[in-house]
Design goal:
It is a single chain. This protein has 334 residues and is of the alpha+beta class. It folds into two domains: 160 residues, Aminopeptidase (3-Layer(aba) Sandwich), CATH 3.40.630; 166 residues, Aminopeptidase (3-Layer(aba) Sandwich), CATH 3.40.630.30. Helix content is 37%, strand content 27%. The strands form two sheets. Strands 1, 2, 3, 4, 5, 6, 7 and 15 form an eight-stranded mixed β-sheet that branches. A seven-stranded mixed β-sheet has the order 9-10-11-12-13-8-14, sandwiched between helices.
Length: 334
């Protein structure tokens, strides 16, 4: 391929049409998410696209640099994550190679490492990533087909999980959907306690608030909540795009685990999704296949198909990455 050029900006309408019409188009590669990343604390978007002489889009990539700290310390935690990208027209190997080459030039001084979190199988183009310095590692996910009747979905749920869903209802736990900023704040507070307990970083509230800002009934952020005695005790912050529901962040108040909010919510989301013409529920990751992972065991009991799309990763600053890991361990210890 000869006649092409790389651009850093696109008309929003053309960008939206390309992502929407692409077979693997997803919310994480939209111009709306670019703006969200731009307006979120400690986040920085990186975007590039390849167009031809006729100004047709051949491929695009949206990455986000995430930092745990601002200022100088942020350099030791800066990582570039690409969710569901790049999007390449007709799986053109030349276009993919151009995008990866340009991306590597752009990111090498900005982030310690890059990670492509794949949402489909890259088998036919895997060598292009490897030739550009990326290593492949296996990584699982679970996808639930919502094009089933409620009875069929229920049969796919493990018997133990079905019993816990029944117990949740018996205990008086209720389910509802919401999109308001007040409920979002309450859900974020729950996530803070969950992530603090797990000693894991949680994005700034501005990330979720910014997504809520462009949301409607078919795209953006949707809150799924479990309530007990008029109090939110568990939640799933999901993202909607086209026919897919993405499990973005989820958690529950520890003291209310005996009300089974984490069992009720996914099941109710399946029913809600099917009733609103969504076709797929994406559980958002299930760990490495050769490493025991309790979260995977939990998710598998809701049925669904286990897929292994893997990830591509490249370290740009080995010394910074080593220092960053040491710092994270110290932070978790104290």
């Amino acid at each position: 391929m000869v006649n092409y050029r790389i651009v850093r900006e696109l008309d929003n309408k053309r960008w939206s049409e390309f992502v929407s019409n692409h077979g693997n188009g997803n919310i994480f590669q939209t111009h709306e998410m670019y703006k969200v990343y731009k307006d979120t604390k400690k986040y920085e978007p990186v975007f590039l696209a390849v167009i031809d002489n006729d100004d047709d889009i051949l491929g695009l990539l949206l990455a986000v640099i995430q930092r745990e700290y601002s200022g100088f310390l942020g350099n030791f935690t800066a990582r570039s994550i690409i969710y569901g990208g790049p999007l390449i027209r007709n799986e053109n190997a030349d276009v993919l190679n151009i995008i990866l080459q340009e991306y590597n030039k752009t990111i090498k001084r900005k982030a310690i490492y890059s990670q492509f979190r794949n949402m489909w199988n890259w088998t036919n183009l895997k060598d292009i990533f490897i030739n550009n310095g990326f290593e492949y590692e296996e990584h699982l996910n679970i996808l639930v087909n919502l094009n089933k009747s409620e009875d069929e979905l229920w049969k796919d749920v493990h018997s133990k999980r079905r019993n816990e869903i029944r117990r949740a209802i018996k205990e008086g736990t209720s389910f509802y959907t919401e999109k308001s900023i007040n409920e979002l704040r309450e859900c974020y507070s729950i996530l803070q306690s969950v992530y603090d307990r797990a000693k894991l970083p949680l994005p700034d509230f501005s990330l979720f608030e910014n997504i809520l800002g462009f949301s409607d009934s078919r795209m953006g952020l949707q809150l799924f909540c479990a309530k007990y005695e008029n109090r939110i005790i568990g939640c799933m912050i999901a993202l909607l795009y086209k026919k897919t529901i993405y499990d973005f962040y989820a958690g529950a108040i520890f003291d209310f685990y005996n009300k089974y909010p984490n069992d009720l919510i996914p099941w109710e989301v399946f029913k809600w999704g099917g009733g609103n013409n969504f076709e797929t529920f994406d559980f958002g990751g299930a760990g490495k296949p050769d490493v025991p992972y309790g979260v995977r065991d939990y998710k598998k009991k809701f049925g669904g198909n286990l897929v292994n799309y893997g990830r591509f990763e490249k370290v740009n600053k080995p010394l910074f990455m080593k220092i960053g890991k040491i710092g994270l361990k110290i932070k978790q210890k104290f």
